[in-house]
Amino acid sequence: QVQLVESGGGLVQAGGSLKLSCVANWRTFSRSGMGWFRQVPGKEREFVAAVTWGGASTKVADSVKGRFTISRDNAKNTLSLQMNSLKPEDTAVYFCAAKEGRYWVVEENAELYDYWGQGTQVTVSS
């Protein structure tokens, strides 16, 4: 059984910052690419950022490029998403996801991820 646990969500004013974290068991985390996705009611799950299993390659969505940074700490089995200059349109439930396999490219397709966290709410007000 694999469980991903997100934390760090909350309410923040536009222009503020939040840092999300996701912790997984070591076996899954050490051999998996990791990603962040977000979802708003009535819309499909949207890619935010992803990092390969070794951390050598990262990718962020155009909508958050320059504002969000993804990173991973394999020693602590922790995935992070630093979110700066937050906008009201960033409001969503943010999900941590794991894709098993030591691939060398990032995965943007949510359907190809194997495990998901419960989500953490991020609300940005003006």
Describe how the helices and strands are arranged.
Elements: E1 5-7, E2 10-13, E3 18-23, H1 26-30, E4 32-39, E5 46-51, E6 58-60, E7 68-73, E8 78-83, E9 92-100, E10 115-116, E11 120-125
Parallel strand pairs: 2-11
Antiparallel strand pairs: 1-3, 3-8, 4-5, 4-9, 5-6, 7-8, 9-10, 9-11
Supply the number of helical segments: 1
What radius of gyration results from the CA coordinates? 13 Å
How is the biggest beta sheet arranged?
7 strands, mixed
Low-confidence stretches: none
Shape: globular
Helix content: under 10%
Could you state the order of secondary-structure elements as H and E?
EEEHEEEEEEEE
Give the overall pLDDT as a whole number.
95
Number of strands: 11
- The chain-level structural class is mainly beta
Q: How much of the polypeptide forms β-strand, as a percent range?
A: over 45%
Q: What is the rounded distance between the termini?
A: 40 Å
Can you walk me through this structure?
The protein has one helix at 26-30; strands spanning 5-7, 10-13, 18-23, 32-39, 46-51, 58-60, 68-73, 78-83, 92-100, 115-116, 120-125. By secondary structure, it is mainly β. Strands 2, 4, 5, 6, 9, 10 and 11 form a seven-stranded mixed β-sheet that branches. The protein has a four-stranded antiparallel β-sheet with strand order 1-3-8-7, with no helix packed on it.
Highlighted features:
126 residues, 11 strands, 7-stranded mixed sheet, 4-stranded antiparallel sheet, mainly beta, 1 helix
